[in-house]
Amino acid sequence: MNENYILGADASADEQVYDARGNLIDEGYIARAVEDVHDALAGRPSLSGEGASPQVAFRVSAEVRKAAQRLAAAQGISLSAFARQALEQRIRHAN
Asked: Residues 6 or more apart from 36 whose CB is under 8 A from it?
């Protein structure tokens, strides 16, 4: 048992505890759970390679949004990925 924690009066130090799926909750289980939480809080990898990726936001008509959603869905990508690819392509062709 980690010395940072004190067992309550109703807990036994040699009692085995299981999660809802029947997995034994031990030190390794807890370490993996904490790592999973840290990974989830870290967010997506940066598109810039380091630090937070800058964000761009703009408004479009409902028709443009619906059309973009349809095209993105047809390609199996998110609307954000579709918009990012379209903007990157436009910039490449402008240079």
From this structure: none
Domain boundaries, the chain: 27-94
Of residues 63, 62, 61, 54, the one with CA closest to residue 87 = 54
Listed as ranges, residues in the chain with pLDDT below 70 are: 1-3, 43
Per the CB < 8 A criterion, the answer to whether 77 and 68 are in contact is no
pTM score, two decimals?
0.53
13, HSE (Cβ side, Cα atoms, 13 Å): 5
Report yes or no: 68 and 61 within 8 Å, Cβ to Cβ.
no
